[in-house]
Amino acid sequence: MEKIYFKSDPKRGGDLGNYWHYLLGYFLPVINYINTHKSEIQAKHLIFDSCNPLSDEILKEYLQSTDFTHSFEKLGPKSIDVPRKDWKSLKGKVNRKLLQLELLLRGSHASIFTYHQFRKCGKQLSVPRWDKYLDQYGKFLPETQELISKMVEELKTWADSTNSTHRSKILVLKRADPPAITQTEAGQEARWLPGYGTERRSLREPEKLVSQLLALGFDASLFTPGDHNLKSQIQAFSAANVVIAIRGAELINMLWMSPGSMIIMQESADFSNEAIQVKLAKAFHLQLHILPHRGEISPEADYSLVKKHISKTNKWNS
């Protein structure tokens, strides 16, 4: 049986060991391709670039609902390391300004979008990196924006989001502990960002915040995205009107929320760069409020500020 290899492109996007970059930089482009080329690839064996056990499970879960024969192989490196000194250097800043000017002048013909489509070399397809668009320019190509919105609705249907078992209007996110597999031989060889979930940062005392919101009559519950498969995450976020969380990759799940929904994001001293979540929220017409930290990596959300944001309208009440 003829094989087709879907290789990630580590040179034109963020680290694919990260859920945020994996979803935008590999998962969504890949499922769009296989759904729009069904007749062309139906009789072929699809080989997907293995990143790490958790990321691979996301794509495997979706592929179970298809008839494609497939497997996973490690086809190359998954990350690109951009030295901090280069990012902050005068040369780096000038280059980014020039890229922004090029976008202003050339629009969708700017050089970064040269890699918008899949590139084929023999039996190998190089997967486009849609995450790069937000990182560099703060927005998607109009056609990419339309495509992702269409795919989001299709995935919500695939996940049967209307029958969610997680129907709370307000979700307070709890980061997952590092999975046991990170300590295994296979896990050690896989690509991960340094530190996983609570090992890196977390929202302190999220259970306390849920109790405070329940006491006020809000329909709130605790949700740990890392403990759930993709379908369950889509179901939970599509049912929520408000999500409260520490800044982190889990917030890529805001994609599944309805326009006008609210994200309250607690900042962390772990970051010094601009929050990518702001750009995604703007792209998909979501309200995003940022709670400042006080020099802590894992701060507790300021309850008075949370209450202020969600009490502006009765829409969030149970």
From TrEMBL:
<feature type="domain" description="Glycosyltransferase 61 catalytic">
    <location>
        <begin position="198"/>
        <end position="264"/>
    </location>
</feature>
<protein>
    <submittedName>
        <fullName>Glycosyltransferase 61 family protein</fullName>
    </submittedName>
</protein>
<dbReference type="InterPro" id="IPR049625">
    <property type="entry name" value="Glyco_transf_61_cat"/>
</dbReference>
<dbReference type="Pfam" id="PF04577">
    <property type="entry name" value="Glyco_transf_61"/>
</dbReference>
